[in-house]
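Thread: "does anyone have the structure for this chain?"

Original post by V.I.:
We have the sequence but no experimental structure in hand. Need at least a predicted one for the grant figures.
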Amino acid sequence: MWRRRIPIAAIIAVIFALSTAYVAWALKDLPDPNSGLAEGDIIILDRKGQVIEDYSPAGHYHVNLTLDQMGKYAPAAVIAAEDRNFYHHGAIDLQATARAVWVDLTSGGLNQGGSTITQQLVKIQLLTPEKSLPRKVHEMVLAIGLEQRFSKDQILTMYLNRVYFGHGAYGIGAAARTYFNKDAKNLSPAQAAFLAGVIQAPSAYDPVLHYSNAKARQEYVLRGMVTTSAMSQSEAGTASAEDIQKELHIGVSARQSKAPHFVDFVLTQLESMFGSAAVQQGGLVVHTTLDLNLQALAQQAVAQGVRDLHWANVNNGALLAADPKSGEVLAWVGSADYSNDSIGGQFDVVTAERQPGSSFKPYVYEAALRDHKITLATVLKDELTNFNGYTPHDFDNVSMGMIPARKALLFSRNIPAVQVAQMEGMNNVIDLAHQMGINSKLDPGLATAIGGSDVTLLEHVQGYQVFADQGQRVNLSWINSVDDSQGNVVYQRPGTDTKDVLTPAESYLITDVLRHYQYQWGFGWNRQMASKTGTSDNGHGQIPDSWVMAYNPDIVIGTWVGNTAPNGGGGHILAFGESVGSSLLRYFVNGLPNKMRDWYSTPTGITHGCGGSELFLVGTEHMCPSPSPTPSPSASPSTLPSVLPSPSILPSPSPLPSPQPSPT
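Reply from O.Q.:
Generated one for you, tokens below.
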């Protein structure tokens, strides 16, 4: 070692020099606590590179405050939420970091937190959203340098002035104004804890969309404030009981967006992919799948459709459209007016659970057709029937007698649909619906067959995408790639995620029935689509929701109308599914590009049977009906729309064994 002292000394000197240079370089961008901390842009682009929304400083609300001006409770609440030992450790909490490293090593990813407030300030102000070991080291060096240069109070002040609270509000001063219309120093303990809880994930804890999540997070913060001696247990109990939801007065920021609900959803995805610090820091360019031309058409169609249905007490609507071959979302309208507080316009109906009514029936018929329990020629009984204690009714309260399955689905008869569900078995129906994309929990009771379990419009469109792509499920997508502020790609969507759920022949049978729906119910569309309506029933003959699902090989669409109020409430409507098809969805379908007019050819695996009058899956053509269907005592198909209120409404059925509301 002594003989090698000169080269060893040289190596140590080089390492020291490089380390010094690295630290000096890393610390060069430390912020000035006395200057305004401007937020970076998040630019959301559509599929053609057009700007959907630019989260720029000009479009954000920011109020720079001193620590004293923030009041007593806001700083204490943020410390309780984000870093309870902030004043008692250095720039790095070694215990929390060790725990995070262990979790990351054992889980095989960079998932665990453990960052101090100082490290979080570095993340949102100075670094890119990259997740890597070198970036973590860089973050730690900057945090140490920050604490050497500034006091804890200064660092906390910078963080509270810079951190993002959602709804365009940067910093506690802006957040207090945006959420509660008051100065930060006047926040109550409950309000301060509520805002502090939002910081971890402003989209996931958005009280407009996810109030219950935000309330649960507030409870966590209040417990932390007791632990840090910021308040007593009794004071925390009083704060917990405070009705925050009534106190919220969220103002829409100076936000210019061509698809605000879609952008909100994308921001949620960014939080999940990169962490909330990435959204707070900005400096991202997000390339999405949205088509702004179709988005504009969808927004116009929803607005005009809601105006047309004003007579029916409709005040809100939503529409989601996607390319069935690629799964790429093309248009996303979450409400009729994002900035209209009277309808809860910022609440995104696309991701809300609602009863789908008769638009669920195709899953039931498809399951039974696929498993050869029925054919389209199978005779079903449309007469009042007691299914082991469940007695569904049809919308017109009359009987059509014995009718083939094709006619039962086309006329959207409820009793035959329940009969098919019983023949197939509800567990099999639910299994298929889940395979096709329905992720919500479906009750195994027979009422689910006619729409008695809640689903979201997003997953319902995913389900119909399988029909539209001839049995192949292609998972819906919305982000193609993400670039950082230096133009480096930090996310690239992997190849299309596909799965064969049905054969082309199996899906074609449903499509062949639903292609007649628009003519049966007089939608007035200018191109061939397959479609199905749905109208929910609250069990008392009142309608909360009306839907129409539609597709061809080029596009799959779901739309909804209803009556909503602030904070998720609402009333009932008089519009049935076909009213939506002939108004709102007619505007959208008839405005689609001419190239979206493709149709399906008959696939292999389809044959004719029973004298050539019906389509069958090969191997089932021998399943001809006996006896023949009896004539229908109801109005003829051509006059049904003008005589009957709806093909999909279920007037208050008999009580179910299960407690869920009755559907259409």
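V.I.: this helps a lot. Confidence is low (pLDDT under 50) at residues 34-38, 627-646, 648-664.
O.Q.: and DSSP finds 24 helices and 21 strands in the chain.
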